[in-house]
Write the structure tokens for this entry.
Amino acid sequence: MSANDKINELTISQPTKEMLSIAKEKGIETTWDRLEKQEPHCGFGQLGICCRNCTMGPCRIDPFGGEPRKGVCGATADTIVARNFARMVAAGTAAHSDHGRGVALTLLEGAEGKAPYPIKDKEKLKSVATKLGIEIEGKSDEEIAKEIAKKALEDFSRQNEDTLNFLKAYAPKKRFELWKSLGVLPRNIDREVVDIMHRTSIGVDNDPLSLIVQSIKTSLADGWGGSLLATELQDILFGTPQPVKGFADLGVLDEKKVNIIVHGHEPILSEKIVEAAESEEMQKLAKEVGAEGINVCGMCCTGNELLVRHGVPVAGNFLQQELAIITGAVEAMVVDVQCIMPSLPDIAKCYHTKIISTSKQAKFPGAVHIEFNEENADEIAKEIVKTAIENFKNRKKSVHIPNEKKECIVGFSVEAILSALGGSLDALIDAIKSGKIKGAVGIVGCNNPKVKHNYAHVELTKELIKNDILVVQTGCAAIACAEAGLLSLDAIELAGDGLKEVCKALNVPPVLHLGSCVDCSRILVLLGALAEALGVDISDLPVAGAAPEWMSEKAVAIGTYFVASGVFTVLGVVPPILGSKEVVKIATQDAEKLVGGKFAVETDPVKAAKLIIKHIEEKREKLGI
Ligand code: CUV
Ligand code: SF4
């Protein structure tokens, strides 16, 4: 295979191909090269049957039923796989929810006047307060915000057997009762994560079902707790997304301007960077160094946060982060937490690009560390932007920015969807009942170099909209489809006749971008509202979830809370559970009897679409529509 043929196999994105061939030419190692060096991957790890939870091991189980059948402590493959799965859910929940905690603390500090975070969306403030049962009459916005923040923080600290304030306020009744009867209502977010770490340590919980039940409980603490409160409180602080035009792909970088990429997950920092870059002082400084201005672009989920709220251009998704640096046009890549490749400082060494780490929790050898804190947010953001501007003069001549970017319409919060529908879900429900829209599918999650970049996201999405299924998206999936032009009004033409008619009438794309990974909670809220409006449970709805190119532990937490919320969820990358027949059976069959949702694994996006369409048709039939 020639080098170009090989690159064509790695991605469907033209700008990505372009940058990959430059990387090749210059001998710069990327994630794809490193994947190759890792292959073949260890079979024990892939099947989930290796355990490192104590020093009597590490232990491995023979996948073919021979010896060893047990770890030194006596743990079986079923125990080991279930324990490993639970730990992935715990890690994913921890990541989303720790982010949520940060937002709650920022809301509190802002309301107390200790940090420069005023309340942007007063309407949302009031609606969240009302949902949580907080009296708003006669109280100032700051008082209300404080009470909301405290309710959120209580969800991290409650020591009794009661459940989360946010889950109680947002989950549909039928689901709530089901979870209650199953004993999976989370007590507090931190506690469920700790519970998993405890019970998966040597010699505690050895029953795969019990371990999966705790995984479900923990994932609910993520979806209806940590992630949901992150979304809601971020909307209060930074505004609830409304439809807005944006651009996506590496072509959003601008050769004539100071390019700053904000990468990671938390808008608490990136919102301030955008503000600082827009200030007269910084604009002036940029002109002084000979740039035409400052171009702040996003990447991954912090990119999604800025894109859906302000239309800030997004330079790419997970697998494009290294390539952005290779354009030679990035003065600074500012990172906070999550999904930031440790390789970035190494690649940046070949260019003038400064990797600026900002979080106490995430330091990168080789990066410049400018630590962020909420109290001094404005000053620190300015310092970061200034550092980028000053670096403009160090840019080398050999800049190569691919000239492709795609227009997209994004920002479909639940509030925005409702207002596009004229204030209630009726129009959507009518369209579903009449069959113009057959159902809805949430496509979410990462990129993974084991999957052709963006291919599975885009193919699955195209298949579904062609079959009159509305698609809602978050995360890197949404960026993939933005780059493929599927988040534009032009994409309406790719939809089946029924969906086409509805999208045209509402003037919305057939694929709706809801936001970042924590905004998967918006999908839950939407599903809950649909179920209540129809008087059924979420598990009765003609809907499904998919993570076609997932890689992160966070995606395992998301997939699990989708399933636990009653949603059929298709994974495009095989999770490390095949070493246990028992766990596979629970995840792909028994879960349905318990919670109404289950997992399926299908690596081919066209076949995945078929599975989903069949599922949706079955659900429609059961509903009698
Ligand atoms: Ni949080 S978790 S690669 S950036 S979606 Fe993107 Fe989204 Fe996965 Fe990470
Ligand atoms: Fe081996 Fe058991 Fe220790 Fe795991 S917990 S490493 S299976 S002895």
